[in-house]
Design goal:
Layout lengths: L1 E5 L3 E5 L4 H13 L2 E5 L4 H4 L1 E5 L2 E3 L14 H11 L2 H4 L8 E9 L5 E4 L6 E8 L12 E4 L12 H11 L5 E3 L6 E5 L3 E4 L10 E9 L6 H19 L1
Antiparallel strand pairs: 1-2, 2-11, 3-4, 4-6, 5-6, 6-13, 7-12, 8-11, 8-13, 9-10, 9-12
Organism: Kitasatospora cineracea
GO molecular function: dioxygenase activity; iron ion binding; L-ascorbic acid binding; oxidoreductase activity, acting on paired donors, with incorporation or reduction of molecular oxygen
Keywords: Dioxygenase, Iron, Metal-binding, Oxidoreductase, Vitamin C
Length: 238
């Protein structure tokens, strides 16, 4: 495992999981039930994607919503999230909740420019789980590594993000979906998933999730339990 790229609002870690944990996570993905979903941005042009039921870890290892279940990979991800306070903030203080959902993007699908802001989110993670990915197959995660839009012209937030990308003095960073690559992204960062090329032999497969601050009254209890989970994971990783 090594950090291979670091921007102001993102981090890329290659060879993230050991072989056994990666194989376990892929088996969990294959056992999961997927539903076809329309893009929440531009359903007419983005194409279809497939999403598993999600689960949340609030600490102590317990999950909600039943799927995709538990994996040692979840704890490895949380350990890496804790190691990046510049992206996510401090565990227990700035975030106490992590979501996990499997996604499949087949050939022809994409997800247009957006920023995943709001909902108490401090950031998100993406782990690429397909076993092979050629650079010509597309599906890159595009990241505009600059401060997000804070004002909206004409009330069209998506159009404003498109405009920010177009008028930016810098070019978006293209992160190839290399297998067993982890990407950590700060909340509010403008990004998109490039269209998967028709030549792709298999869907783009990921485990994706948001790191967020719970607002319910049980937040303090969840925070303490999550900190125990992270501490245990850190000891096991030593």
């Amino acid at each position: 495992m090594q950090v291979t790229q670091r921007g102001g609002r993102f981090v890329v870690v290659d060879d993230f999981l050991d072989a056994a944990t990666l194989a376990e996570l892929r088996r969990l993905m294959e056992r999961s039930t997927f539903s076809e979903v329309d893009s929440v941005l531009y359903p007419e042009t983005d194409g279809k994607a497939f999403r598993s039921r999600g689960t949340y870890v609030k600490g102590g290892g317990q999950g909600e919503d039943g799927a995709p279940g538990r994996s040692r990979a979840f704890e490895r991800i949380l350990q890496q999230v804790v190691a990046e306070p510049g992206i996510f903030g401090t565990a227990g203080q700035d975030w106490d909740r992590a979501g996990f959902t499997f996604w499949r993007y087949p050939a022809g699908s994409r997800l247009s420019w957006h920023n995943d802001a709001g909902g108490g989110r401090t950031g998100e993670f993406i782990v690429f789980l397909h076993e092979e990915w050629r650079a010509s197959w597309g599906g890159e995660l595009m990241i505009l590594d600059e401060e997000p839009v804070t004002s909206v012209r004409d009330g069209d937030f998506l159009a404003q993000m498109e405009l920010q990308v177009r008028e930016s003095a810098s070019s978006p960073v293209a992160i190839v979906p290399r297998p067993n690559r982890l990407v950590l992204v700060k909340a509010g960062t403008v990004h998109q998933i490039n269209r998967v090329d028709p030549t792709a032999a298999a869907p783009r497969r990921t485990l994706t999730g948001f790191i967020s601050k719970q607002t319910a009254e049980s937040g303090a209890q969840a925070r303490d339990a999550l900190l125990r989970l992270v501490d245990r994971s850190a000891r096991e990783g030593q």
